[in-house]
Amino acid sequence: MTDDKDPVGKDALASAGMNTRLAHLGNHPFDFHGFVNPPVVHASTVLFPNAAAMETRAQKYTYGTRGTPTTDALCEAIDALEGSAGTIVVPSGLAAVTVPFLAVLSAGDHALIVDSVYGPTRHFCNAMLTRLGVTVDYYDPEIGAGIESLMRPNTRLVHTEAPGSNTFEMQDIRAIADVAHRHGAVVTMDNTWATPLYFRPLDHGVDISIHAATKYPAGHSDILLGTVSANAAQWERLHEASITLGICGSPDDSYQVLRGLRTMGVRLAHHGESALAIARWLETREEVAAVLHPALESFPGHALWKRDFKGASGVFSFVLKAEPGARKAKAYAFLDALRLFGLGWSWGGYESLAVHVNLNDRVIAKGPAEGTVIRLQIGLENVADLQRDLELGFAAASLL
User: Fold this and answer.
1) Where is the signal peptide (predicted)?
2) Whole-structure pTM value
3) Which end of the chain has fewer beta carbons closer than 10 Å to its terminal beta carbon, N or C?
């Protein structure tokens, strides 16, 4: 049964397939005269009917930084995907990491950060958290329940990321979360690679799920936005931190990400299928020492990926064979010969990208010894065309 406020029907949507849910989540047309997409509400000041209501904030919207119908529509959709108690929208993927860190950590606390973490997260920890009096240690992504040996009485945060940035190490998230919770620590996870379509962190013991919505949710390389979703135990803490810090996402960007969600399922499936096809092809190349893709049977973390994840996205790396003294030159020759692959940061858009990976900041999870690492973002182009482009790179690198 449906009504004016719920034209699809909550029961029907709850039992529907993922693409059906993506088409309707956060969408209440009859709240806005039947228009299919929610309006973009630009707001700073919100008026109150009287002084008492103003003093007690006795209405849903009170100021632009605390949400609008547009940002709420996106948060509602993300909550449904994540299974979370609440979601905040922030201006970037990095802000989606830093806000929950600041919500949880205080001077004198200890944080454990996976060594395969997103590079800007490491920089924030080393440059900002340490200056604020937080002790930071990095741990092996493959440690699993062995993280018990690293816990301290003042460990307040364990940060995970699976697969790991650039080298795609898998983590046993449930085992790590169980240990962390026994010691009273909060568990956060950067789940940007999988999105909640392929992995739901809160279902595996994570307290706070982090996403760079810049990537697959937006999907078109033109938006910067992050989302942070928390379970019931951590939601008020996260929400209060975002208000205290004055961190909020814009309604225009929220609208664009909500629009991107509608096609994320079909885009992600295409990205993943093409990426796996190219990864398998790269395994046959004599120029390649290893392909770092969790969905490959040859990958060390494949069993964990198969156990916990519902799919794979379009980003992975490979190791280009090169002697130590020639690695940068070979990588540059490879990259400079590409024509379809762009050379640019980020990923998740429609276009393919390639990056030479720098692993010099690693403490434990060092880079492979056989060569240099190239990360690929596989876009929506035809696989055969991308393979021909990569062949240009291999031909150029072989001349050195």
Assistant:
1) none
2) 0.94
3) N
